[in-house]
Automatic annotation (TrEMBL):
<dbReference type="InterPro" id="IPR001919">
    <property type="entry name" value="CBD2"/>
</dbReference>
<dbReference type="Pfam" id="PF00150">
    <property type="entry name" value="Cellulase"/>
</dbReference>
<keyword id="KW-0732">Signal</keyword>
<dbReference type="GO" id="GO:0008810">
    <property type="term" value="F:cellulase activity"/>
</dbReference>
<feature type="domain" description="CBM2">
    <location>
        <begin position="402"/>
        <end position="505"/>
    </location>
</feature>
<keyword id="KW-0624">Polysaccharide degradation</keyword>
<feature type="signal peptide">
    <location>
        <begin position="1"/>
        <end position="34"/>
    </location>
</feature>
<keyword id="KW-0326">Glycosidase</keyword>
<dbReference type="InterPro" id="IPR008965">
    <property type="entry name" value="CBM2/CBM3_carb-bd_dom_sf"/>
</dbReference>
<dbReference type="InterPro" id="IPR001547">
    <property type="entry name" value="Glyco_hydro_5"/>
</dbReference>
<protein>
    <recommendedName>
        <fullName>Endoglucanase</fullName>
        <ecNumber>3.2.1.4</ecNumber>
    </recommendedName>
</protein>
<keyword id="KW-0119">Carbohydrate metabolism</keyword>
<dbReference type="Pfam" id="PF00553">
    <property type="entry name" value="CBM_2"/>
</dbReference>
<dbReference type="GO" id="GO:0030245">
    <property type="term" value="P:cellulose catabolic process"/>
</dbReference>
<comment type="similarity">
    <text>Belongs to the glycosyl hydrolase 5 (cellulase A) family.</text>
</comment>
<keyword id="KW-0136">Cellulose degradation</keyword>
<dbReference type="InterPro" id="IPR017853">
    <property type="entry name" value="GH"/>
</dbReference>
Amino acid sequence: MFRSLRRARGLRRALCAAAAALLLPLAGAQTAHAAAPGAGYWHTSGRQILDAANQPVRIAGINWFGFETGNYVVHGLWSRDYKSMIDQMKSLGYNTIRLPYSDDLFKGAGAVPNSIDFSGGKNADLQGLNSLQVMDKIVSYAGQDGLKVILDRHRPDSGGQSALWYTSAVPESTWISDLKALAARYAGQDTVIGIDLHNEPHDPACWGCGDTATDWRLAAQRAGNAVLSVNRDLLVFVEGVQTYAGVSGWWGGNLMGAGQYPVQLDVANRVVYSAHDYATSVAQQSWFSDPSFPDNMPGVWDKYWGYLFKQNIAPVWVGEFGTTLQSTVDQKWLAALVSYLRPTSTYGADSVSWTFWSWNPNSGDTGGILKDDWVTVDTVKDGYLASIKAPGFPSTGGGGGGGGGTAACSAAYTVSSDWGSGFNADVKVTDTGTAAIKSWKVTWTWSGSEKVTNMWNATYTQSGATVTAVNADHNGAIAVGGSVSFGFGGAPGGGAVPAVSCTAT
């Protein structure tokens, strides 16, 4: 999506035919699998994405944009350290980061970031680095935290999106050369699981028309094979177009032609199809005014991209979806889409993968998971996604893993607000051992009559004045040196900060 610094992207022009969508039968529900570890490089089998041990995995992530803009780096580093940002993503249960970029990063000696705050020791290890070197640091730390990364060729240059994968200034040869350079750069680093070849192809881009100048499916095959020629382990994420057979939809969101004209690559089991889907805060569509809305939405999604999953043709990843949540229509849309993507608790990784747009608050037509201070979480928006979040993955660096290390942790208890009759507190759990932590437990005993009233990102029991908090499913794993946080409300306020103990396994 094309957004930067509260500058709303021009309205997506997507005139959608009102033809009734085919309601394809829902595949039979399956018992949820055990949490897949996600180790190594991934591949596909039917509608599932599998790890190196053939365990199914679910991408449940977030878009963090900025490299594709004139800042040439992810946004928000003007106010926070990048490591704290990634730690917070993990603590909220996101397991993958989609990183948009533009080909400007490869020009000359490489683009240089222009909006990083180094004061107070923030982002100290990014000083003097160009944009690609900063990307290296983000990828490395994300891997240590057990997050995966998908690189997204979002724009040919920082000026804006393009309908086709090339422009007069950035020809196809440059696009492919830069894709190959990224694939080679991260070869052997399985934190980077794949590349999204081009963001939101739209008219005059076509699918299966056979014109090499406009057929996005043929271009995706050329680019995908080029990527795999230098790094055959990567997944190749291919978005849709705007219009197929006279039926239009969201930019990049129309995969109606992929069933008849699949993307065929030289390396088997590498293609993941990607759709984008939005609500009325981005643009109006005919289905929002259908009298049966939101009950009509599963049929709409079936028609445009859901059939690929339901017919076991290929995995589907909704690479972007978002909304400001200001209207009732948008709230109903998001609730319906989350249900359609399938809850992890019921289906495990046999579900549609996703990355929400966006982490950033400065997305003009959607806002973000973070509020404008770049710290506070929009808990309502984040809460809509709770049922489709999925377990994190093993650390890919930073001293984590097996091999005889010792699991150990520490916990720091901080009162964030106290109004007398009640208070809020945050607890930061840090891996202080020599091995990655799989799970943790934090215990404290108050000296007064305090009671926990609610807790987030952990579960708890309280016996008298003693509270025991245990990690949630999404934040039990911590890389060596890494940290996660949970918070809670309690009453009454005014009490002393207790001593806190932490136990790790």
